[in-house]
């Protein structure tokens, strides 16, 4: 699965620079995560970095974008130009 940012986001700006895939950007009101770029940090880190730094714990799994660890790894390989 990719991750998503909920309405609890306080726009603190700490998650965006932590994303190794550039999946996080400022939306109209809060930060958003592009599910086409989010790999839950698979290929980079053991844990999603945005979740680790979020002070309000507003970045859950996105149940609308279900992907296995294998699919996330394949996406990482495509994004990083290794596939």
TrEMBL record:
Pfam families for the chain: Fer4_7 (PF12838)
InterPro entries under this entry? 4Fe4S_Fe-S-bd, 4Fe4S_Fe_S_CS, PSI_iron-sulfur_center, YfhL-like
What keywords appear on the UniProt entry?
A: 4Fe-4S, Iron, Iron-sulfur, Metal-binding
List, alphabetically, the SUPFAM superfamilies matched: 4Fe-4S ferredoxins
* Superkingdom assignment: Bacteria
4Fe-4S ferredoxin-type domain mapped to chain residues: 1-29, 31-64
Cited PANTHER family: PHOTOSYSTEM I IRON-SULFUR CENTER, PHOTOSYSTEM I IRON-SULFUR CENTER-RELATED
Name of this protein: 4Fe-4S ferredoxin
């Amino acid at each position: 699965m990719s991750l998503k940012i909920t309405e609890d986001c306080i726009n603190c700006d700490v998650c965006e620079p932590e994303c190794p895939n550039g999946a996080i950007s400022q939306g109209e009101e809060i930060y958003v995560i592009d599910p086409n770029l989010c790999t839950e940090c698979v290929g980079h880190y053991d844990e999603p970095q945005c979740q680790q730094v979020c002070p309000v714990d507003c970045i859950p799994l996105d149940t609308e974008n279900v992907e296995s660890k294998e699919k996330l790894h394949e996406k990482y390989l495509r994004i990083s130009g290794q596939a």
